[in-house]
Amino acid sequence: MEFQDVVRRRHMVRSYADRPVDRTVVDRCLANATRAPSAGFSQGWAFVVLDTPADVTRYWESTADTTSPDAWLTGMMRAPVVVLPCSSKAAYLDRYAAPDKGWTDQDPESVAARWPMPFWHMDAAMASLLILQTVTDAGLGACFFGIPPERLDAVRREFGIPDAYDPIGAITIGHPAPGGALGSPKRRSRMPLADVVHRGRWSSRLRP
Fold first, then answer.
1. Is residue 26 part of a domain?
2. Is pTM, for the whole model, over 0.70?
3. How many CB atoms are closer than 10 A to CB 166?
């Protein structure tokens, strides 16, 4: 598939057919994810892959009430693969304390001043987008969504995620179900470039 087609066709899939996913596709997604940019080439990401029915069930039981699922949960639970992308702040602090970077002070206030944006989360998010694009390129569907904050500790315990890593969300992967489930793009129009692109300085509209 041409890259522009991948970008145009990628969307969040919320309802899946009850069909397995070729493991080679999942492996390609993960390999591509590690090609994402990362500050200082810190590569402070990790991916928990749940690709057996038992493991996928464990995920949903850890994060939701599966006894009476609504339409969204019913559609999502049919996905045969769930990937948990994780980020490690510690990996970035260690990397930037190396001789070629030299930020040896890891005092919380110093860290906050040097990292006003959490690049560990941002880089893991870029890796997640590469997973979504690879899934689209393979003709499948995926959805990135958040883990309920009150269930994060349960997810950590269930899948043995160490304290140095934080799950930034979850990604379902599978074959889209016919008809699918309506998402926000079906109810809201895409914003025009003129409303979101500002050249030279911030303005309400693009200059001609």
1. yes
2. yes
3. 18
